[in-house]
Specification:
It is built from 3 helices and 4 strands; from the N terminus they run αβαβαββ. By secondary structure, it is of the alpha+beta class. It is globular, with a radius of gyration of 14 Å.
Length: about 100
Amino acid sequence: EKLNLTDAESGTVDVVVSDMAPNTVGHKKTDHLRQMVLLEYAFDFAVRALKPGGTFVAKSFTGGTTNDLLKQIKEKFENVHHIKPPASRKDSVEMFIVATGFRG
């Protein structure tokens, strides 16, 4: 069944996955801030789209999230972990946030 964006924002989705990444400029702080903006957009969408018990997976960069955003994610989900997939290059700053058990 096809699901459009309007439907997804009504709390009917089991999983939200965001692999968004900004165009990087090579300046660590700037690149991190750009990634944080995308992560905030993805989290906002997940909160509106997920049904209770849902899962949110989103790309982050080394350094994780800001304390405020991480606190917000932990308030909305039962379990929150940072992982670096084995397929990711060792020198890559790419990580993922995996949050399960959306509280609704």
